Amino acid sequence: MRALDTKVLRDLVHMKGQVIAVGLVIASGVAVLVMALSTLEALRETTDAYYERYRLADVFAGVKRAPEPLSDRIREIEGVQTVQTRIVKFATLDVLHFPEPVMGQFVSLPESGPPLLNQLALRAGRHVEPGQHDEVVVNEPFAEAHGLTPGDSLVAVLNGKRRLLRVTGIALSPEFIYSLGPGALMPDDERFGVIWMNRKALAAAFDLKDAFNNISLQLTRGTRPEGVITQLDRLLEQYGGIGAVARANQMSNWFVMNEIDQLATISRILPSIFLLVSAFLTNMVLTRLIDTERAQIGLMKAFGYTSFEVGFHYTKLVLGMAVVGIVVGLFVGGWFGRLNTQMYAEVFRFPLLLYRPSPSAFAIASALSLLAALAGAMSSVRRATRLPPAQAMQPPAPPTFRRGRLAHSRFGRWLDQPTRIVLRNIARWPGRAALTTTGIAASVALLVLALQWNDSLNYLAQSYFFQAQRQHVMIGLADTRSATVMHDIEQLPGVLAAEPMRIVSADLSRGAVTHRGALTGVADGAQLQPIYDDARGVEIPTPPEGLVLGITLAEKLGVGVGDRIWVNVLEGRRPNVQLPVVEVVETYIAMPAYIHIDALNRLLKERPSVEYANLRIDRLEESRLYAELKKLPVVSAVMLRQAAIDAFYDNVVEHLMVFITMFSSLACILGFGVAYNSVRIALSERGRELATLRVLGFTRGETSYILLGEVALLIVAALPLGCLLGRLLSQLIAAAFNTELFRVPLTIDPSTYGIAVLIALAATTLSAALVRRRVDRLNMIEVLKTRE
Amino acid sequence: MTVTLSASGLTKVYQTGDVVVHALRGAELELREGELVVMLGPSGSGKSTLLNILGGLDVPTAGTVWFRNRQLTASDEASLTEYRRRHVGFVFQFYNLIPSLTARENVALVTEISSNPMDAAEALALVGLAERLDHFPAQLSGGEQQRVAIARAIAKRPEILLCDEPTGALDSETGILVLAAIDQVNRELGTTTAVITHNTVIGAMADRVMHMADGLIARVDENPDRQPPDELSW
Per the CB < 8 Å rule, is A421 touching B101? Predict the structure, then answer.
């Protein structure tokens, strides 16, 4: 090995503490990047493969009742390759040993052979036999939640009739990766299941012989769904079509894609922070090293090494540090990526999982980290190459200090000399102090970012589940009913109050922008689920006329109070009218458009009707009410608020803990790395000064004060800065995470800042303690013997 | 005459790897109150090791050191620190000033932790730097820096002033200025002073000259008439 290369290796070993600290920061950045990129890749590949293999449709549409022959006309639409008509209905289920009503989404299977589209991945048992009207296949998460296995049975209330059904198989479907019950925000596998049954059996139960109420299309390659949807909507209109959606807007796929997008956001923002910090750290370490090696640089040049060779020598040192970090980061990132993908696979219930990260994720992460480290090192390497040999062999001129304004002030006179040393060092190298402060602030910011999620989601849940929704139970009726049904509902056992609600599908548009959503009809003086402004925390009285829009919807349509929008109702007589926006409310979840229920009924030219009822109940009568609801034919859906809250916390908190733990560890590494390097470098630069103080009779504690006081002061400055940065970063990420369904309200509890600050202090204190041990071992004699 | 510092049977053995170095081999000496001693010897004779042990910076492998009636060789790390802090002033070959502090502040660094110090400005005036109080080390010449170091060493009114090659990094003219400052402090404050040098000329300003060789004090010469430093030349 060449002598210079031997020197690189020895230097790396000699500076092992700093190499480890820089390496850890680089490794963190690489690990996050590899994790995010490889998980992204795996999720995309897996969903693509899943959709492909099980033939997920490209367009989905619901309709009230359409005759089967219509499918031939639909097949003739240009770009349509395959058509699959189905019957899809909601019904309540009665599962053994489970007191609460359970919702089932029944989906028909062709009488013979597998469905052309949206095929099932059978996990256990067998498919239903042709002609068997009591056989069903249930989706796996639901089966697991209730311990159902092939051979078990369950009771369903199909169109008012109780039917005993036998489970023959357990399956997964690409259509229900994310399976949500009506009105639910989060999957709740105990209370919502998908059930596949023979077409004839469902047709008989719901009186849909030779008819369908749901259709899926596969398009020819390269066909855009928009044109097909327009034609499909036109064909279905007279049969009660409620608007087709493309795969991108199909609920399950929308959620999956949304998760993937959020992951992509993380993969952009977080690694950037680590790469910047690692650039700064390599700069700091190398600048210091080159200062101490001036004489050696001079010597190398005197011996005839070229500037390039000298520069390359120090570049190799940086490469050495970076490579240590990158190798660790690649392994950890690959491992995290697998864990993360498995976690997603569990949430999404993929029947197959493709985790085979391509070299590109690893290559991108390695290349970016190398570049960042090299960029950080560039200025100091250039300085080394520019040193003329004669000058390099001279000791560097002592740094010049100036007395600041502080020294002359009254406060300045009161300062003791050690404190002056601390302050002047900061003032002498403001750039370095700023970088240290920024680095530690970045670590605090990451901690705030990680911890605030808990606050924000808690706030979201509080606002949505407790302030905006006060009903205990919401029931959905099998069909639109006359408002008089409310009297019957009020008579049910345990019902303290009942309020009607109506939701109809509608296209809302202004200019070229159309939103396919719904109108929610709210009663006068609604108390159980009023129109609610989440940000202001106030109820909005239901206006007699006009629309109240959620802000996300108002922004999407680009409208405000006083504007008029087109409302094209997709149900009933399908009125198409212009309505004024009378109020815009801040909402965190969904994109509601509220209207007075009477106005809605007038719009539809219907007598007072309801589709949903919100109930407030007596907890003591709960089980009697549930038993009653399971029997009622008019009830097709029962949603319990408590179950929704539990599902929200189960789903979110589990994810969140992993996220918080991972981010907090990374933030600690960052804080540790920055603080350790700052203190370590200060020690090697000022070892002589500190040893002198020891000789002069300063105790170890007093000596450490000068060294650690400086970084302590920088940390103190970094804490509030970090909290501020954390807030900005959280805002940035929250904005990036906003979707049409969720807008995360940024909320940071004061205690969150406190915890972030404490964790950051612990990490930096640890690094200071490690260096402090070196102060204790300072060799007083050695350092006085020679000029540095 | 009272003895301020005494040492007997001082041995110091360094072992680095397989190499064993006997820096001191049973050195004996006394420093009497108020005297100025010059220790002469070639490099490697053990001068610095001896000074470090006398100053409480290092501990001998064997032998005892007494400061008045206190046995330093039985002290722990903390009480050696206290000994240096209260009783010893050091002057080094390379000054070892704190670059971020002015001359006055460098002196104040020590007076702040002493019980009965003189004013920093007064100490600097004593070494002829009354006009350079607010200059930083980078703004001072080598000789001036060394005189700041002497002011720093004597400002706490130490009983002992230990100087390790104080003129080693200076030209002769500047060196003499520095020696004059040491001589003045010794005469005016009565501080027991030991100066290490390999420059035999400097011996002329001492009360006694100790010649070191091979880790021992080979010979001690009494010098009844001390020469003032400004009469020295080399």
Answer: yes
